[in-house]
Design a protein that fits this description.
The protein is mainly alpha-helical. 58% of the residues lie in helices and 3% in strands. The chain is globular.
């Protein structure tokens, strides 16, 4: 049965994050409960006064956080999140602050290069093929001018899983999900969307070659560049240190 939840129109022109936050707010208030069906894309567009791409990207953000489940032919439904899937939910409200985003990026800089170094040793052929397939999906989305941030985020989650350490994988799923909830504006950096895929391909190449040092160095450089694409309401993030 469709939920009777009503949403208020979004006033911001870049609305994907605001759409995701409004849906998240309804989940946190208990209005949208596990199993509830969200309105259709068209209904969300009308209720929130946003375009289709904003709605789709918002749903991708929520899917990355494992908060919604899209079922082809049926619709999008609220999931029952597991404790390991949502890292410190109270941080959602703090993501508005640039300092919180910077700390998330610094934590990522400390953990992810080490994780990718471990993936160079432990990744299976199946792991690597799955990552390569995801990069193919990312490429097709970019060529079709469709939202691709979720593919970029999933790349890092799959790499962490390829390290075959459940704690690291859970940490990366959570921290990437929080950063996705904050929102990204890749247009801030001219040509960045294309560069991002090339950097991901290079990292995968190093992992296939089991070159841990090269993979870790490439990941550090990527994280530092990517930090400037996250939504800060117009204010740039302070620079991250390569030695963080």
């Amino acid at each position: 049965m469709l939920s009777e939840t009503k949403f208020s129109p979004i006033q911001r022109t870049t609305a994907a994050q605001a759409v995701a936050n409004q849906i998240l707010g309804e989940i946190r208030r208990g209005v949208l409960r596990p199993g509830a069906q969200l309105p259709t894309e068209r209904d969300l567009m009308q209720q929130l006064n946003v375009g289709r791409s904003s709605v789709r990207e918002a749903l991708q953000i929520l899917a990355t956080l494992n908060l919604v489940d899209s079922r082809p032919g049926s619709g999008t439904f609220i999931r029952q999140p597991q404790a390991a899937e949502v890292f410190r939910p109270e941080l959602f409200g703090l993501l508005i602050a640039n300092s919180a985003a910077l700390e998330l990026m610094e934590a990522r800089l400390m953990v992810e290069p080490a994780a990718v170094r471990l993936a160079c040793v432990r990744a299976t052929a199946e792991d690597l093929d799955g990552i390569a397939a995801l990069l193919g999906q990312h490429e097709r989305a970019l060529q079709a001018n469709e939202p691709a941030n979720a593919f970029a985020a999933e790349f890092h989650v799959l790499l962490a899983k390829a390290a075959h350490n459940q704690i690291v994988a859970g940490f990366m799923e959570s921290i990437i999900g929080l950063l996705m909830a904050r929102g990204r504006k890749v247009e801030r950096m001219a040509g960045y969307a294309r560069t991002e895929i090339e950097e991901h391909l290079a990292i995968l190449h190093h992992v296939r070659d089991q070159d841990g040092e090269a993979a870790a160095a490439a990941m550090r450089a990527y994280i530092i560049d990517a930090a400037q694409t996250y939504d800060t309401d117009g204010a740039p993030l302070p620079p991250l240190s390569v030695n963080a």
